[in-house]
Amino acid sequence: MCGILQLSDEVLAHNILSRLTPRDVASIGSVCRRIRQLTKNEHVRKMVCQNAWGADVTGVLEHMTKKLAWGRLARELTTLEAVCWKKLTVRGAVEPSRCNFSACAAGNRLVLFGGEGVNMQPMDDTFVLNLDAANPEWRRVSVKSSPPGRWGHTLSCLNGSWLVVFGGCGRQGLLNDVFVLDLDAKQPTWKEVSGGTPPLPRSWHSSCTMEGSKLVVSGGCTDAGVLLSDTYLLDLTNDKPTWREIPTTWAPPSRLGHSLSAYGKTKILMFGGLAKSGHLRLRSGESYTIDLEDERPQWRQLECGAFTGVGSQNAVVPPPRLDHVAVTMPCGRIIIFGGSIAGLHSPSQLFLLDPSEEKPLWRTLNVPGQPPKFAWGHSTCVVGGTRVLVLGGHTGEDWVLNELYELCLASKQDSDA
Q1: Of 51, 87, 19, whose CA–CA distance to 331 is shortest?
Q2: Is 320 helix (H, G, I), strand (E, B) or coil?
Q3: Contacting residues for 374 by C-beta, under 8 A, at least 6 apart
Q4: How many angstroms separate the first and last alpha carbons of the chain?
Q5: Which segments of 171-315 are extended strands (E)?
Q6: Can you tell me which residues the record assigns to a coiled coil (predicted)?
Q7: What is the distance between the alpha carbons of residues 288 and 298, in angstroms, rounded to a whole number?
Q8: Tens of pLDDT, residues 98-143
C-alpha cells in the first residue's frame, strides 16, 4: 500500500482505481484518506463504473447522474439500500383490451405490441408510453405497415430505438418471422427481416439482446405442442442479417415460459419455465448459463446455493416458476420475481443472484412499498438500468394498463453522499 501511495494522483486514478469495482474502491477509500479524496472526483467515479459495468451500461445510466452523483449511484446499485416499490397511474388507453401482449423499454418509453383480444383474436397494433412526459399517456403509434397480429411473441429493443418482434401465435398458426421498427423514424414502419434458416415457428419462447444488436431466441412450443430446447442468434448489424443456430453438445431440458438474461457482455442465464421432465411437464427452478464468446459455446447447469446471513432463519431459493420477471442489473446481478408459481409462494418475493460468482448464491430482498399482485415477464420493462416497470396485472380477464408498479433500484434525490 505504501508503494502505491508514492504514485501521482493521475496514475492512481487512471491506472489503478479505474480498474477496480465500485465496492473495492469504497473499501480502500474507507481506510485511506488520500484515495477517499480521489474517489470524490466524478470523472474517476465514472471511470470506475465504466470499467465494472461496461461503456454501454454507463451510457444508459448517464441520465441518472443528473440526479445522483456516480459515487452514490454505484453505492445504491451495489448495496440495493434504496430499492423500493411505487405505484403509478398513467393516462390513455390500450384498446381494444387484450392479454398475452409483449412489452419492452426503448429509452424512457414503454412499448407494447400485439396481444390476444376477444375470442383469441391476434392483435397487430403498437402503443407507446413516454415516461418523460409531464403526464405519461398511452398512445397508439401510427405505423405505415404492421406485422401480422400475434400473441405469445417476444418484443425486444436494440440500440435504444429499434424494436424487434419474433414469433408468436397468429391467425394461421405459429410464426417464425422477424419484424423491425425504428421508433425514432419520421414515419415508423415495421420491416420484415429474413436471412438464413430461421428457427421453427413457435410461441412462449424467450429472447434477450446482447451487445446492442444481437437477438438471442431459445425454446418455446411448436404447433404440435412439442417443447423446444434450441438456441438461435440473429445479428442485426449485418447488411444481410442471418439466423445462426448455436450448436451445443448438451442443452437444458426443452421448455417454454423461461427467462433469458444477458450479463457480462456475452453470457446468458436461463432460469425457470415449464420444462419437460420425462413424460411430464413441470415448473423449473433451475439455472443454466452459456458464454457465446467461447469457441464452442456450451450450456451448463449452475449449482446455486442459498445465502444464510448472520441471524437469518432459513436460506431460501426461488420456487419453480414460469412466465416470471428476470432483470439484469447494471452490475450483472439478476433479480427474479413474479410468474406462475406452484404452491402458496408469494410472487412479490424478490430473489437476487450473481451468476459470475464462483459459487453463486440466491439472496432474498426485502423491499418496502406496494408490490404488484401479479408480475409477468412479457409485460415488464427495464428503463434506464434503474427502473423496473410492471404493467398492471389483471382483474379477472381484463388487464389494467393504466396502473404501473415501479421497482426503483436507485433513489431519485439530487444530493450526494
Answers
A1: 51
A2: coil
A3: 338, 347, 393, 394
A4: 26
A5: 173-182, 191-193, 206-210, 214-221, 227-235, 243-245, 255-256, 259-263, 267-271, 274-277, 280-283, 287-291, 300-302, 305-306
A6: none
A7: 10
A8: 999 999 999 999 999 999 999 999 999 999 999 999 999 999 999 9
Residue 1 has pLDDT above 70, yes or no: no
Residue whose C-alpha cell is 444464510: 308
Residue 56's φ and ψ, nearest 5 degrees, are: -65, -45
**The amino acid at 26:** A
Instruction: Verify cis geometry, omega within 30 degrees of 0, for the bond prior to 96.
Output: yes
- For 73, the grid coordinates are 449511484
What gap in Å lies between CA 46 and CA 39, rounded to an integer? 10
Residue-wise pLDDT for 249-283, tens only, equals 999 999 999 999 999 889 999 999 999 988 889 99
Q: In what order do the strands lie in the sheet with 154-158?
A: 154-158, 162-170, 173-182, 191-193
CA 155 vs. chain centroid, Å, equals: 12
pLDDT in tens, 197-232: 999 999 999 999 998 899 999 999 999 999 999 999
Alpha-carbon distances of 365 from 53, 213, 238, 355, rounded to whole Å? 22, 32, 41, 17
Query: pTM of the entire structure?
Result: 0.90
Q: Looking at domain 91-246, what is its CATH homologous superfamily?
A: Kelch-type beta propeller (2.120.10.80)
Where do the domains of the chain lie? 1-53, 91-246
